[in-house]
Write a structure and sequence with these properties.
Layout lengths: L1 E8 L3 H10 L6 E4 L16 E2 L10 H20 L3 E2 L3 E5 L2 H16 L5 E5 H7 L9 E5 L3 E3 L1 H14 L3 E3 L4 E7 L2 E6 L3 E9 L5 H5 L7 E3 L2 E8 L10 E5 L6 E5 L5 E3 L4 E2 L2 H5 L7 H14 L8 E9 L2 E7 L2 E8 L5 E4 L2 E4 L10 H16 L23 H10 L6 E3 L4 E2 H9 L5 H8 L12 H10 L2
Parallel strand pairs: 1-2, 1-12, 2-9, 5-15, 12-23
Antiparallel strand pairs: 3-8, 4-8, 5-7, 6-7, 10-11, 11-12, 13-20, 14-17, 14-18, 14-19, 15-16, 16-17, 20-21, 22-23, 24-25
Bound molecules: flavin-adenine dinucleotide (FAD).
């Protein structure tokens, strides 16, 4: 049996940031992840927006954490060397219902102290974004909205937590949790673990994990989301993140990503039983067709033939449930705010939806502090270093910088992924840091994310992984 002070279940954004924050203490931390790498759940399949906070009710935990996280995001990305941009956002409407939503969000934002908000009329908004369909009736501009690649952030948090002493075990699915000797025994298909404290950050399975040792209280009833990604050649059609508030409740979000692509989505549709049970994040034709139709209406000149990929996601919608004659009954009130449930050393993060990416470090810190206190391990780790060195991105360098690097290592001169301009040296760096398949190299270097989606570089990357050179 392997013993530790804190066991974290799940290596998504919340598990990795909880681990990172726990390593600020002199404490043993083990993270168990059922997949073979970090960031294989919702954390890789979201909109990548760093929200400014006007979307949430002033006074709510979501609002407080979001505003705090937005302010701290430049520092976080500086420490972890993660690319981050603040293009700002425009929420637009084309009629009275949307205008009312915008006016309410503006009021909430101002009341909640959100910086950089202004209400615009239609012509002001159209001047800022000429590609949007004419007829905008009002808009809310938020200068502090940002974008990030969620997997880059998650990988950075993981690497930093690991460098500071957290251990990660991959391919390790927790199948049972029992209370024993003032702590917990966690069973997996392989080893058994004992911990004084457990942090349940299992995303779409966090309700299942909690119920391994507790009575039903909160269950997740996911809905599905679809996304379309356009190639970088079509990415600059808008400069800001656009939130379209549709009159019929259906809206469109457009995100110019940090890599220069245009992300279109998400939809919000019923998830089939198959999708929900298997946590299967697939797309659906009806969802993609809806996105295309909305896109043609809102940004008529967007070139949808430049689509390079689609992806799906699942929203972990939390609802209170009650037990009635052994049956679990879903209560009407879905849980809007975030909550960390604490049950004698079991801390559960259930149903953390948007803006969970934005405040992943802050929520991770809150739960880390609680878990460390429960484990009685609050002495600081005097060796803690918040900085992580990123893999050098050759595509961001000047010709001179590039030439210098090639002189020091010729692998910087071999371009393996021509679409994203990724070199052999970057792929070798990713492998050295634990990437073991095409997907994990792709998330660490950007190779395979371009126009051909890896059809030109996949074989060569697999070869480099196999040979290690
Ligand atoms: C459609 C959508 C769009 C979003 N857009 C945004 C956005 O633009 N901005 C924003 O701020 N937030 C956004 N969010 C919210 C954000 O993505 C989530 O809050 C965040 O990713 C949650 O991370 P997590 O760590 O809880 O979950 P996950 O990333 O799903 O991680 C949970 C991990 O637990 C593992 N696991 C599960 N069961 C077990 C087990 N039994 N044993 C071991 N491991 C297990 C899984 O494999 C997974 O890796 C969005 C969410 C959705 C659904």
């Amino acid at each position: 049996m392997i013993s530790t002070d804190v066991l974290i279940i799940g290596a998504g954004l919340l598990g990795c940031f909880t681990a990172r924050n726990l390593t600020e203490y002199d404490i043993d931390v083990i993270v168990l992840e059922k997949e073979d790498d970090v960031c294989r759940g919702i954390s890789k399949a979201n909109t990548g927006i760093i929200y400014s906070g006007y979307d949430h009710k002033p006074g709510s935990e979501k609002h407080k954490l979001c505003v705090q996280a937005n302010e701290a995001f430049d520092r976080l990305c500086h420490e972890l060397e993660v690319p981050f941009r603040r293009p700002g956002s425009l929420m637009i409407s084309y009629g009275p219902k949307g205008d009312a939503v915008i006016a309410r969000k503006y009021r909430d934002g101002i009341e909640g102290g959100v910086q950089g908000l202004s209400l615009l009329n239609g012509s002001e908004a159209e001047a800022m974004e000429p590609a949007l369909a004419k007829g905008i009736t009002s808009a809310l501009y938020s200068s502090e909205t940002g974008t990030v690649d969620p997997w880059e952030l998650c990988i950075a948090a993981y690497e930093n937590a690991r460098e500071n002493g957290a251990q990660f075990v991959f391919g390790c699915c927790v199948t049972g949790i029992k209370r024993k000797d003032g702590g917990f025994i966690a069973e997996t298909q392989g080893d058994t673990f004992f911990a004084k404290t457990v942090v349940n950050a299992a995303g779409l399975s966090s309700d299942v994990i909690r119920e391994m040792s507790e009575k039903p209280l909160i269950r997740l009833f996911p809905t599905a989301a679809d996304y379309i990604v356009l190639d970088r050649s079509a990415g600059s059609i808008v400069d800001h993140v656009i939130f379209h508030e549709g009159e019929d409740g259906k809206g469109l979000t457009l995100v110019p990503t940090v890599d220069g692509n245009l992300l279109i989505g998400p939809t919000n549709r019923e998830a089939s039983e198959g999708e929900t049970k298997a946590c299967d994040m697939r797309t659906d034709c009806s969802g993609l067709e809806l996105l295309k139709a909305l896109c043609e209406e809102i940004v008529p000149d967007a070139d949808l033939s430049k689509q390079i990929r689609t992806f799906g996601s699942l929203r972990p919608n939390p609802y209170f449930v009650s037990l009635c004659d052994g049956d679990v009954i879903k209560r009407e009130d879905n849980i809007k705010d975030i909550r960390i449930t604490e049950e004698n050393g079991l801390f559960s993060l259930i149903g953390i939806k948007t803006p969970g990416l934005t405040f992943s470090n802050e929520l991770g810190k809150a739960v880390a502090d609680m878990a460390a206190a429960y484990a009685g391990k609050t002495e600081p780790n005097t060796d803690f270093d918040p900085h992580r060195k990123a893999i050098i991105r050759v595509r961001d360098l000047s010709e001179e910088e590039r030439a210098d690097l090639i002189c020091s290592d010729s692998a910087y001169g071999e371009v393996v992924c021509p679409c994203m301009d990724v070199t052999k040296a970057e792929i070798l760096q990713a492998v050295k840091r634990g990437a073991h398949d095409f997907e994990s190299v792709k998330r660490r270097t950007g190779a395979g994310f371009g126009k051909c989606q890896g059809s030109r570089c996949r074989r060569r990357i697999m070869d480099i992984i196999a040979k290690g050179e």
